Amino acid sequence: MINGEQRISRPLRWGMVGGGRTGQVGYKHRSGALRDGTYRLVCGAFDLDEARGRDFGVNLGVAAERCYADVQALIQGEAGRADGVEVVSVATPNFTHYEITKALLQAGIHVICEKPLFFSVTECEEIAALARDKGLIVGVTYGFTGHPLVHQMAAMVKKGLLGDIRLVDMAYTHGFNAGDDTGAGEAVKWRTNPRTAGPTFVLGDIGTHLYYLSEVVLPQLKVERLLCDRKAFIPTRAPLEDHATVLMHYDNGARGRLWVSSVDAGNMGSQRYRFVGSKASVSWSDAHPDQLHYEVQGEPGRVLHHGMPYLEDESLAADRMGALHTEGLGDSWANIYLWIAQAIDARQRGDEAFLATHHYPDIQAGLEGVRWLENCVRSADAGAAWVDFR
Ligand code: NAD
């Protein structure tokens, strides 16, 4: 159980690029990072608007002189300080991730970056090599995979409780873009423009969460082939999609079906996962993250609750609130941030043995998400053809 006791020797000096006052995801980063005293927010280039960014940073308790205009100013300003920043989170629109991450790594600063990580696998490989050369950690904020019951599913699969995995069924849909983009805010504008979003809209925006969570639950399964059909129901979003269906063949013979959409009118946003094996299945949704449906063929279904002693150790180790009380998205993000902090701490101590077995969403996880997107686009652009995964 996680109870706020320190797992690393001292708080990491932490900064943010993006995630300013008007940013959608910024507070999730801060609520995750600042929960346990594992990080201390010391600086930021929070906003494209310098004055608003400084005002915001000061309101967060950051010294005015450490609220910078942009990432370059942050790197320069922090470089000369004995108490300079050690790790920076990147919570900016997709098209900026690569340049900002590269600049931070070159300056010797660990990075925690948003998904989808970059635009191409080639960029991911280049940055992975840079991080390796510099001995730095890159974490990726797949923020839903800190939920304790995600790790319960992974542990049950590993123990063989489901039998051989046959079906992987995943959906992340909402209706917030069901109408057209007249009068849309910045966050919709950059998401629907290939120059700023990258090669996909909903596949990258929400589909990468599904794909990564399935990798956490089923690390031994690899996609061999896939078929992706994507469409812009609002034509101004083309060539990007606001809706997509992906079929997948896995190397053990399992079949996968994944649906992502931002035009699922009336849906307030939910992720649904069902993993089916030869003996049993598990179903989980982030709408009810404290409950896991476990159904053994021929037996009455069971609902497992987070924090209960009958759960696997891996799940209980990620629990914060205990069984009687609800556990939510903020707790999940706090776990992700804690696990990344432990990776940074281990790297700083030179504890490679710890790193070899420590699990967190790392740059390889970010790269695999981008690889999956590239394959989806290749299939969709070929007219929803089956393509070999590469
Ligand atoms: P947003 O448009 O709402 O906010 C972007 C923020 O970054 C704003 O504060 C803006 O002023 C600032 N900004 C933009 N360019 C900047 C730059 N060059 N330097 C400094 N600040 C800059 O975007 P958002 O919805 O918060 O998304 C940001 C990123 O987070 C995207 O990559 C998105 O895919 C990702 N995201 C992830 C999750 C998740 O669950 N992990 C959820 C939402 C968004």
Automatic annotation (TrEMBL):
It holds the Pfam family GFO_IDH_MocA_C. Coiled coil: none annotated. Residues 156-388 form the Gfo/Idh/MocA-like oxidoreductase C-terminal domain. InterPro entries: Gfo/Idh/MocA-like_OxRdtase_C, Gfo/Idh/MocA-like_OxRdtase_N, Gfo/Idh/MocA_oxidoreduct, NAD(P)-bd_dom_sf. Residues 12-142 form the Gfo/Idh/MocA-like oxidoreductase N-terminal domain. This is Gfo/Idh/MocA family oxidoreductase. It comes from Pseudaquabacterium rugosum. The lineage of its organism: Bacteria, Pseudomonadati, Pseudomonadota, Betaproteobacteria, Burkholderiales.
